[in-house]
Amino acid sequence: MTTTTTTVTETVSLDKPLPKGRSLWQLSWMRLKKDPYAIACSVIILFYVVVALLSRLDLVGYPWDAKVGESYGRPDTSSFATFLGMDIFGRSVMYKTIYGLRIAMSIGLVTACIAVPLGASMGAIAGYYGGWIDEVFVWFYTTLSSIPDLLLLIAISYALGKGMTAMYVALISTSWIGIARVIRGEFIKHKEREYVVAADALGASDFSKIFKHILPNVSHFLILNFSMQFMSAIKAEVILTFLGVGIQGLPSWGNMIDDAKLELARGVWWQLTGATVAMFVIVLALNILGDSLRDALDPKIK
Amino acid sequence: MELLYLMINPKHTRLVRSAFALSLGVSLLAFVGCTKKSDLDPTNTFYTSSIAKIKGLDPAFADDMYSGYEVTRIYEGLLQYKYLKRPYELEPCLAEAMPTISKDGKTYTFKLKKGVVFQDDKAFKATNGKGREVTAEDFVYSFKRLADPKLNSPMWWLFDGKIEGLNEWHDASAKAGKSDYAANISGLKAVDASTLQIKLKSRSYQFVYALAMPATTVVAKEVVEEYGAEFLNHPVGTGAFKLAEYNPSAKIVYVKSPSFRKEFYPSEGDAEDQAKGLLADAGKQLPLVDKVVMTVHVESQPQWLNFMQGNLDLAPIPKDNFAQAIDPKTKGLTEEMKKKNIQLFIEPSLDITHTSFNMTDPVVGKNKYLRQAISTAINTQEEIDLFYNGRAVSAQGPIPPGLAGYDPATKNPYKEYNLEKAKELLKKAGYPDGKGLAPLEYLSLADTTARQMTEYFQKAMTAIGIQVKVQTFSWPEFQQSLKNKKGQMWSFAWGADYPDAENFLQLFYSKNSSPGPNDANYDNPEFDKLYEKSLTMNDSPARTELYKKMAAIVIEDTPWAFGVHRLTYGLTHPWLKNYKPHEFNHGMAKYYRIDTNLRK
């Protein structure tokens, strides 16, 4: 009698890959990649970022305050500086537009970078803890948002003295509310979900539940809001500066449009054109990208 | 009287009227208005405008040109300027005749016109709301208001140190809880109901001019007491017009006052006035228009467009529309203007623009070389081309051309645009290339042209290494800041209150510091001494010499970086008759006539 021993070894074939799971982010990226508008807008935004950085390093559009031609000289394609004509002091409108772009981008970036995390953490804490914390918080933001934004912005600019800092403070203090509201709602919804309950059962702390478990699951809202905040900050800066409570002594698009309201009478259209086209393009690009992001990040739309 | 970057701004609004007609509520109001005042012709209206918001209609606070214009539509004083006469000359207004002056030149006695009454107001309880007659007591009361420290009138400088006993009353009131208006003042007496006696501390040749200014017009005690702080918004005067609609930041409407005394259009005028038809209405009862509508247009563009639409009867020419109005070759009106029969008036104005340095500031106030450096770094000629279309001359000193004391030979050494010299001065000041100098705080106004001028200034300063931090305000806020001696520098302008260089030199007299008109808070005992001496002197070559000496001191000390003297270019529509530009245009709307047929 022979005894045979057979070793039963199940060999799992490695050369046949399992269907790979894809994360929300990967799916979104796939969807976004297929959207030609989104790609075009991203390129435009990237272009603006690059120009702003180059301007920050004084590599393009520098020096904006030098005289490059006569007062109100007409656009002239002979050089980059005179391409969009000259302003009242003979300065290059092209350079001013670029400097305005730099200001707009930094206002947009700083506001969005601070307002979104601020709003998100406020909303997260309120939504997660509920109770009196939530009540205080809701009272605070409803009060703040009952004041018309523009008036609040003007009041802050007056109190802090006008300039970039006042603009940052003013825009951040009004723009966190929207995102905080959304995130609060999401947290109220998510904190009862199984994965959070499971994390709780494993002994996760509040901090880890808020920031490690729930927040990543609602983070697509942050990205979406980031692009929207960026755009509305740019618009607000231009409007405030136009009204004389914004940027002082530097070429902002708002200042250029304000100049233009007098200059148009003498047929000088180039400052208006420079500032409005530059603003139109970036605001449109951020708007379209915002929409595309919404479509791409929403798992319900496929 | 302070003014600003541009000059007179008249305007009206047919647009506003038609918009009103559409609104049921307002058209009902208009209907009520019509039945009540059936003698008023709504088309017989003078439409004018202001580029600054009006602070209110209290004479004691009428320290800027814009409030001055509005206050004097309602209020009147003892004297006024002759409308047509040049050079400027005073004539009695509420006074019956020019004052009799005592031998020593110190005592002025005024007889008042009989039968002049205040406009009706509910504050006149004794007469059931009917306006009572003006008495000498009313003038005593009105003048005391200027001296009242509780009121803190910015026009106190007019009387400060000039009238016997008034300073003592001012000081006593400052200590007391309440100012005692019943107290007797030796230099300010109502001898009887129609005789006013003013005793001066020393002989003064400018004093009579003060009595033709908006601040010295007469108010009624009952009205002031009835409305208290709200008096600013409840003007009740003796003038040709009374208030009908009031929104100081948008629109003020006046209607002909039914109780206005018998005053007639002047019948004396020179051949030129005759030729221009300015005497056509000689002897007619004033006012000639039934209504005055004043709208506030803070920006020059809407004002200009409204003028071009015919919605305003007169307007200045904004810098950006200059090419549209004036032909650069002929220096006259363009074809477009001629077609509309628009008239052009060019008047050299008795004024000066300047950048004030706050002399109480530890940095700019105490460093002469720094101020001189700043002044030297400004390219005035370029400024004149950019902002005034060449309609101005560079100011070398504090006195404008046209007044005794102005010396065409004076060349201000810190007015020649020279960057090398400016840098040299800055080095002398202790800040080589601006090193060690904190950014200077510059106060400015929020409108577009002011912002551009400020930007220009900033740019000029950067060229020598000085950084400028800008703070922008509205006109009333701006004035408030100056009163509180805030800020290091600001741009400003001064228009003559009366045709005497003293009016410009008093801007440097230490006792006139803020809230008075010496906004730079300049304080120099040597200057003060000369100034005080000049006050006691009659118009004479010796006084003119003194004026020149004072000007030289100010030029060297540079409490101001001098700007320009402007030429005023004004346009009127053909239907505005009897218009003659006047440097002291107070209450003069009563002389204007509207040809209502031409307006259509």
Q: How would you describe what is shown here?
A:
The complex is a heterodimer of chains A (302) and B (600). With 302 residues, chain A is an all-alpha fold. Helix content of chain A is 69%, strand content 0%. Chain A contains ten helices and no strands. The radius of gyration of chain A is 26 Å and the shape is globular. The model of chain A has no long low-confidence stretch (mean pLDDT 87). With 600 residues, chain B is an alpha+beta fold. Chain B folds into three domains: 2-67 and 246-346 and 569-599, 3-Layer(aba) Sandwich (D-Maltodextrin-Binding Protein, domain 2), CATH 3.40.190; 71-233, Dipeptide-binding Protein, domain 1 (Alpha-Beta Complex), CATH 3.90.76; 351-567, Roll (Dipeptide-binding Protein, domain 3). Chain B is 29% helix and 17% strand. In chain B, the strands form six sheets. In chain B, strands 1, 14, 16, 17, 18 and 19 form a six-stranded mixed β-sheet that branches. In chain B, strands 2-11-10-9 form a four-stranded mixed β-sheet, with helices on one face. In chain B, helix 12 runs antiparallel to helix 14 (419-428) and helix 18 packs antiparallel against helix 19 (541-557). Chain B is globular and about 70 Å long. Chain B starts with a strand and ends with a helix. The interface between A and B is medium-sized, with 18 and 29 residues.
Summarize the structure.
Chain A has 302 residues and is mostly helical.
Question: Which key features would you list for this structure?
Answer:
heterodimer; A: mainly alpha; MetI-like fold; globular; B: 600 residues; alpha+beta; D-Maltodextrin-Binding Protein, domain 2; Dipeptide-binding Protein, domain 3; 3 domains; six-stranded mixed sheet; four-stranded mixed sheet
